[in-house]
DNA sequence: ATTCTCACA
DNA sequence: TGTGAGAA
C-alpha cells in the first residue's frame, strides 16, 4: 500500500528542486551514493527515499566531506569514517593556517598605510617573506632550483660542479645532523635541509649574541666542515657552487626559498675566526 | 527531453 | 568533483 505522497521524479525535475544539475546526480550515482530506479526504457526515476538520500548527501557535502567520505558514512563503515574525518580536519586546519597568514599580512599592510607610510612592492615582498619564514620548503624543490641556477649562471661548469657535490654527498663529507639532534639523511641528495637548519640555528645564536657558546662552536664546526667537504679543487667551480646555492637559498622572489640575513655570514665567520685564534678548530 | 562516454578543468 | 559535447 503506497502513501499518497508517493511521487516520482525524473532527473531534470529532481535536479531542479534540489538545486543540482543532472550531471551531479549522475556523478553521485557513479560514486555509489545513490541508486535511482529505472523505467523499462532505462530512464532514471527518483522516489521519496532518493530525495531523502539526496538531502543527506547535500548536507554532508556542504560540511566539506568528499564523496568517498559520504559513502563511508552512508554505508556506516566506522573505520573508514575515522580516517575521513581526520583527513577533513587536517585539510580544514591547513586552510585556516593559510587564511590566518593572509589576514596577518593584510592587517600589517593596512596598518602601515593608516600610519601614512607607503607600501612599495618591495615592502610587500618583505611582508610575505616574513610571513613565510617558518614554512618548510621542500629540499627537493630547493635542490632543483639550485641546479637550475647553476646551469643558468655557469653552463660550462655546471656538470662538473654537480659531480663534485654528488661525490661529496656520496663520500659523507656533508654534515649529517640538524640542530634538533636528529639525523638527516643526505644520501638522497637532500642535503639542503642541512643548510636550512644551519641558517636557522645561526639566526638563533646570532640573536643570543654569544660567539663562544658551545652551540655556536658546534655550528661553526659543521659550517666549516661543510665548506671544506664541498670545496672542489677548481676555484671557478667552487665559486659557481657558492653563488648558485646561496642565490637560490636567498632568492626573495622564490616563495619556496627560506630567507636568511646576510649578517648570519658575518656572525658565523666571527665564530670561526675566534675558534681559529684560540686553536679550537 | 534522456541515455552514455570522453575529454577537460 | 563536476562540466560540456556529441551520438544514439
What's the number of structural domains?
3
DSSP helical segment count: 12
**Unreliable runs:** none
Q: What's the arrangement of strands in the largest beta sheet? A: 1-2
Estimate the helix proportion, in percent: 55-70%
Proportion of beta-strand residues: under 5%
Spell out the helices and strands N to C: HHEEHHHHHHHHHH
Summed over residues and divided by their number, the pLDDT gives a mean of: 79
Main beta sheet: 2 strands, antiparallel
Overall outline: elongated
Describe the protein in words.
The protein is 64% helix and 1% strand. The chain has 281 residues and is mainly α. A hairpin with a 5-residue loop joins strand 1 (37-38) and strand 2 (44-45). The model has no long low-confidence stretch (mean pLDDT 79). The protein binds a DNA duplex (9 and 8 nucleotides) through residues 10-12, 21-24, 26-27, 31, 41-44, 61, 66-67.
Task: Lay out the secondary structure.
Layout lengths: L10 H8 L3 H9 L6 E2 L5 E2 L2 H15 L4 H8 L3 H37 L6 H12 L6 H15 L4 H13 L21 H17 L5 H17 L4 H15 L13 H15 L4
Antiparallel strand pairs: 1-2
Helix pairs in contact: 4-5, 5-6, 7-8, 7-11, 8-11, 9-10, 10-12
The chain binds a DNA duplex (9 and 8 nucleotides) through α2.
Briefly say what this structure is.
With 281 residues, the protein is mostly helical.
Amino acid at each position: 500500500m503506497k502513501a499518497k505522497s508517493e511521487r516520482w521524479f525524473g532527473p531534470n525535475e529532481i535536479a531542479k528542486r534540489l538545486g543540482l544539475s543532472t550531471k551531479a546526480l549522475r556523478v553521485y550515482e557513479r560514486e555509489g551514493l545513490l541508486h535511482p530506479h529505472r523505467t523499462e526504457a532505462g530512464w532514471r526515476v527518483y522516489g521519496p527515499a532518493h530525495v531523502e538520500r539526496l538531502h543527506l548527501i547535500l548536507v554532508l557535502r556542504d560540511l566539506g566531506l568528499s564523496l568517498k567520505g559520504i559513502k563511508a558514512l552512508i554505508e556506516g563503515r566506522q573505520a573508514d569514517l575515522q580516517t575521513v574525518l581526520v583527513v577533513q580536519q587536517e585539510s580544514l586546519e591547513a586552510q585556516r593556517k593559510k587564511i590566518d597568514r593572509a589576514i596577518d599580512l593584510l592587517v600589517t599592510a593596512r596598518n602601515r598605510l593608516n600610519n601614512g607610510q607607503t607600501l612599495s612592492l618591495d615592502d610587500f615582498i618583505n611582508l610575505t617573506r616574513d610571513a613565510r619564514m617558518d614554512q618548510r620548503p621542500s629540499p627537493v624543490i630547493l635542490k632543483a632550483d639550485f641546479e637550475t641556477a647553476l646551469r643558468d649562471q655557469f653552463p660550462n661548469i655546471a656538470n662538473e660542479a654537480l659531480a663534485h657535490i654528488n661525490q661529496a654527498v656520496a663520500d659523507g663529507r656533508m654534515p649529517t645532523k640538524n640542530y634538533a639532534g636528529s639525523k638527516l639523511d643526505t644520501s638522497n641528495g637532500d642535503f639542503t635541509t642541512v643548510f636550512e637548519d644551519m641558517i636557522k640555528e645561526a639566526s638563533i645564536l646570532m640573536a643570543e649574541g654569544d660567539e663562544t657558546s658551545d652551540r655556536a662552536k658546534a655550528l661553526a664546526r659543521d659550517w666549516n666542515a661543510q665548506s671544506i667537504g664541498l670545496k672542489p679543487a677548481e676555484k671557478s667551480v667552487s665559486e659557481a657552487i657558492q653563488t648558485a646555492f646561496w642565490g637560490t637559498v636567498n632568492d626573495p622572489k622564490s616563495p619556496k626559498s627560506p630567507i636568511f640575513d646576510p649578517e648570519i655570514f658575518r656572525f658565523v665567520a666571527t665564530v670561526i675566526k675566534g675558534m681559529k685564534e684560540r686553536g679550537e678548530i
